[in-house]
Amino acid sequence: MDTWMLVTIIAVGAVAVVIKRLMGEPLNARDLFAPPLVLTGLGIWALTEVKGLTGTDIGWVIAGSVLGVGLGAVRGATIQVYPKEGILYQRYTGKTFLVIIGSLLIMAAFGFLAVHMGMQAEARPINLSIGVGFLGEALVVGARGLSTGVPFAPEKPRRFERPRI
Q1: What is the pTM for the complete model shown?
Q2: 19-68, pLDDT tens digit by residue?
Q3: DSSP E strands, the chain
Q4: Membrane-spanning residues where (predicted)?
């Protein structure tokens, strides 16, 4: 798949998630953790496809991933987690968007530094960066949700799944 096509698909998906969370949505464990894990897995797979991956590249990827999880965790701390209709909901706040902008600037500066310090630009898969950021967010939001004692929202039925009775 063309790189720009993949970036576009991932960006559209990320914008859709942000819009849903801005409006407020039920907090479902599968929806909270599945996308970041899938994106992170795809990012790791993309790294295996990089020709001539070096120890320097791997070091920068690990450092960038740790930074991404940390920034995602900070973002997760700004998300409103609240009970509604007997289940948990989540909503992005104004602070969340400030953290998103700050995170983008920090990660851009980190990427610039990494490439200028010897990292291959190809060793920076965008899906890995987005995935680890959402993973950090999910870990904090999930922990905050568990601490409330309010149940997570039930899973939505899948398209081709029979309704549970």
Answers
A1: 0.83
A2: 887 888 999 999 899 999 999 999 999 999 999 999 999 999 999 999 99
A3: 25-26, 80-84, 87-91
A4: 6-23, 32-48, 60-77, 97-118
